[in-house]
Amino acid sequence: MATFSTSPLIASGQSLSSITPTIDIRDIVRNHGPVAAVDHVSFQVRPGEFFSILGPSGAGKTSVLRIVAGFEDPDAGDVLIDGRSMLGVPPNRRPVNLVFQSYALFPHLTVSENVAFGLKMRRVPAALIDDQVRQALTMVKLVGKEKRKPAQLSGGEQQRVALARALVNKPAVVLLDEPLAALDQQLRQAMQVELKSIQEQAGLTCVCVTHHQEEAMMMSDRIAVMHQGRMWQVGTPREVYENPRTLFVSRFLGVSNELAGRVGDAVADAHLFQPTDDRVPKFPVRIGPEASAGHPATWSLRPEQLRMSRDRPGDRDTALPGVIEKVLFAGSETKYLVRVGRDTLWETRTTGATQPPYASGDPVFLHWALGEGRVFVE
To answer: Is the Cα torsion angle 133, 137, 139, 143 positive or negative in sign?
Structure first.
């Protein structure tokens, strides 16, 4: 089951259109030789927002981050921060701080010295440096570890030092490049909560690049899904998960149960979907304005939208027969892989003891309501 960030961004009575974006990316292009790494990308990031750019390796997301940071120049387009164009502005003069995937801590410096480094480069008075470093370390819960070297810290603590070093400069934007990639799964999940809490407490505007879907959905106020240099969809985690605009977005954000086929004739308030697999019977679907009878298409449904029963359900649900092929116990839930038709495996899940146990080889019916699922036209 997907989990979504639900942190509020907009003050009561304030509309989205009245907010001046902290970051305004306008039709940027970046070519790496003959390859368009960034292909006419535009988006805005609002003040205090945690905005994630999500996509597979090679999607172009890191190139976007480097352009915002000033380490790469766009071949076309513009980058505005707080309403000011950053074209020609070097990285050290931009109101941003970048937290690297490797943290990039100085191994010979203590925690306090690492955090203070940027302030010293800006020639901030020593008395102010001590106070600002203390505030930053308090925020990331590292008070008492000021004298330690990075090698004496856990991975999560090193990540927090890198974050404190970014926070202490009070940037307009914190850029995060795969910030939790170096952590193990258990620590990664804990740090998702920590990082989101720090971001909200400090009122930071964050842009995070990640290929980890759960990480993006847990922490983000909005997500941009990127692929082949282009942004395919921007929205809240719930919007992009429940209403993906393309089959790629549907597949990339979680598990999709799919059937290839063709949109058939209209019947009542739906259309019949004819699966390519002739062992799967036709069933009614709702289609969008981009589809019509005769179109090749893929029908997609999330595992949590599927119900499973031993008997065919009533007329209100659409149902397909299947046979359980695998039962995977995962603690709080059990996953079932059910063969539908000739060679299609669908996944469905049960939680706790809400349903009687099933076993491999059991014949079952998979069913769902008419309004659930989506048809993607090829």
So the answer is: negative
